[in-house]
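Researcher: We are triaging several targets before committing to wet-lab work. For this one, the compound of interest is zinc ion. I'm pasting the protein sequence and the ligand SMILES. What I need is the predicted three-dimensional arrangement of the protein with the ligand bound, expressed as structure tokens, so it can go straight into our comparison scripts without reformatting.
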Amino acid sequence: MAMNNIDNVKAFLPLEYFKEISKIPRGSGNETEIANYLCDFAKKNGLWYSKDENNNVFIKKNATQGRENEDAILLQAHTDMVCEKNVSSSHDFTKEPIKLVFEGNILRADGTTLGADDGYGVAIIMALLSDSSVSHPRLECLFTSSEETGLVGASAFDYSVISAKSLINLDGAEENTVIIGCCGGIRTELTYPLEYEQTTLPAYDISIRGLYGGHSGEDINKGRLNANTLMGNILSYVYEKAPIRVAKISGGDKDNAIPRECDATVVTSFPLCDIKDEISTYAKSFLEAKEDGNLTVEIKKSTTSKAFSEKATLDLIKILSVPNGVLKYRETPPILPKMSRNLARIRTSDNGFSIGFSSRAYLEPDLKASTDELDKLAKDMGATTHHHEGYPGWESPSDSSLAKAWAKSYERKTNTSPEITLIHAGLECGIITSRVKDLTAISVGCNVHDLHTPNEVMELDSFKRIYEVASEFLKDFH
Ligand SMILES: [Zn+2]
């Protein structure tokens, strides 16, 4: 590729690396090849490197002249990507390179996720490591594996090798945002044992459809309805009119998504179809977000020969009415959710029902308060809970010299001030700052849209700009 001046070399270097890593299949759990590639890259550039059994790669670069006595900076990105494709795509994520499509300023893939999340981060760090024109202190660069499947690599890495006092995580999706905090999270499975009773009562199916859903962290404060808790409201409403017993219930799918659909089968002597419209009107009285405007509640006759006991039905209604959504807001700006819960998933089986919750909070005591409440609820009704391994939250000061220096470098480049904020979702910064003493962190990145879907696109000028901001930042941050 012809380069006519140093600015263009800088501008295009990360893109060249992005093209290279796009050739390497790197779905979560399949990171051996990308890890080996990064080791080869380090070798070729004469850099110190190591790789662990989880395919985390750690590369170090000496300070440029005169900056040997400054603290090291830790740069970090994850190597894995989400593999999603359109139904029409025959792409094999385990073998084939991502097919890049350039459309002016937009880079996308052909019918698949692009892997800009977090390939751009990997590419920017590689460019900073190989570009000899950038002034910087010692660089410690960590490329983590399997972020998308539960921050696996970051959790397993041995942080005793890190000496940096500042961490820049390059996994953001908006260039004008500097993230200084994220949520911790924990998933809870509540299991309710059950013996079904025979029944000859008329049965009805109740179906909730048309809700918008969204991410259970980042979208939790948008007023969108949770199909499972809405079903709880409907069951409770009907129960006030006449005794019902639930026979079956199924709602939600992914633990990190707000459930959009829920189905329940109930038995009752009350002619439920007669109050269809009334129930629908009742359900719609909860509507808040306009995205949920397509909500429908359908009731139709069904059949079943067995149902829960009355006690189990009432216990289910009680569980579905446990506080859900935003439980607490931060008291100081930015006013964002501080603690939240998502009743993500519910299923019945032959011997009971189980409910999956995900709790999020910045602070450990808030997380514990949420899981304690679920424990107590379960215990009181003879059910059990299992808490999966969680991950910690993180909050660095909004006026840290690190956040201010990044904001200043960004301002100089763009003439706009970035927003310094927190996100109500998990980031690897939470784990890393909990393992490395006195580490201040920010999470930044370039403009990437529709992450985790085949519509994922990256803005190329933003990619270039963030590389330049990162170079400026390294030059100026002492
Ligand atoms: Zn990511």
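Researcher: Any quick observations?
Model: Residues 1-10 have pLDDT under 50 and may be disordered.
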